[in-house]
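Subject: Predicted fold for aspartate--tRNA ligase, 545 residues

User T.R. writes:
Posting the sequence so we have a shared reference for the thread.
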Amino acid sequence: MSTPESQPPAGSEPSNEDSASVSKKAAKKEAAKQEKLRRRQEQEALAAAARSLSVDGQDPLATNYGDVPLIELQSKTAEDVSHWTEVGSLTNALENRSVLIRGRAQTIRAVGKNMAFVVVRERGFTVQCVATVQPDTVSRQMVKYIAGLSRESIIDIEGVVSVPSVEIKGTTQQVEVQVRKLYCVSKAAVLPINIEDAARSDVEIEKALQAGETLVRVNQDTRLNNRVLDLRTPANQGIFRIQSQVGNIFRQFLISEGFFEIHSPKLIAGSSEGGAAVFRLNYKGQEACLAQSPQLHKQMAICGDFGRIFEIGPVFRAEDSFTHRHLCEFTGLDVEMEIKRHYSEVMDLVGRLFVAMFDSLNKNCAKELEAVARQYPFQPLKYLPETLCLKFEEGVQMLKESGVEVDPFGDLNTENERKLGLLVLEKYGTEFYILHRYPLAVRPFYTMPCHDNPAYSNSFDVFIRGEEIISGAQRVHVPEFLTERAQACGIDVKTIQTYIDAFRYGAPPHGGFGVGLERVVMLFCGLNNIRKTSLFPRDPLRLAP
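User M.O. replies:
I've generated the structure tokens; pasting them so everyone works from the same file.
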């Protein structure tokens, strides 16, 4: 006899319809469970297959691909490398030729199980490589291996050059390499930033936003924190090749003018420029500084009868300047020379040097400038064949006539420099000019005062696109007067006594100038921040990487 608890309540018996519904739900649940299990098993099988590819000999073509063992990368054998081909040299002329190339796997794309595409990049040049399953060279396992490569890995490829019938979009080289062998030399880890994101222009990002799309924008700090990756973008490849050319042109032009290069010490006993913006350190129990410029020693070299000298080297400024154009360490391009009669001899050299530099960059760095402009659009610099020279008083007058009040015995601030640059461009049609006869009060202690008005000096600044890039002057070469000027500027004469003494044994009238390499490149390329032209910037907040 059934107990009340065991008996179903009246009317609670399941109908055939309810039973069918429960059965359908159970069946769906079971099917989903089996599908999940099948997927997991499939993934495990794929993973096991991938693992086996690198350790077993089941693939008869396994020797045509894989990771290069460390021992093979330890300079195991010396051999001729002339049979290697640079990616930038891959042209139609090499059609049907076998080549061996090395580069980074910029992009990898598999098309089914029988084909994979790899875009290989080397020094800014790119080529599309195609791996297609073939009985004697490329297996499915090899295609799978290629598809599993991480982006930016360094790979070696042996293959045959082919010329497709249609244009290849997205690569610099208009040929393909039909892959026969592929080996990974160095695997890249997961990238903190993607190169294509870092190479994207603000214009492209804004256009996407207007179209309702969102593209990744890599900010400056993220770039600098991952500088090794950031440097791989086409724009940065261009920037630092242009920078190299600026240094090369500077050196070759001056050598052709009878100058030679020196290398002055960067550890000095006292401030080379005056002021508090100096890095101080303990030098074996003595107080020392990092040189703010090679100023003192290049003048001493002139006293040593070197006549005409230049230097390319590091410069240190301990300024707390959080601006777009200041760094705590930069590369200085410095010149010093004897003058016969007038400091205009130095200004004439500056004009000819930089016109030659701009001409050479425009002629020989067209591809690099184009790469920079794609990411950071800019207009070519406007300059005259003979450099415009204006007096400081003339510049002040131009500003006053435009409604800007300027202290005639003070310095120009950044805003006034930019304003004057626009006025000069409008009136004279140039973005490169020299402003000279600055007030003495705003120049370093070693600057020679004007003969007709000691409130002004035989000094000059040079501007590109409204920003100062060069400071120069005739120097004080009379030791007694030099001592007086140093004391007036608050410099402890004892710390520069050897410098002053160098002028006691006969010193020729001389002058010179200094320019920041990074600032020249920044302004020539119309960039908005000097950190873009410094390889690994050092500013008040950054000491790494």
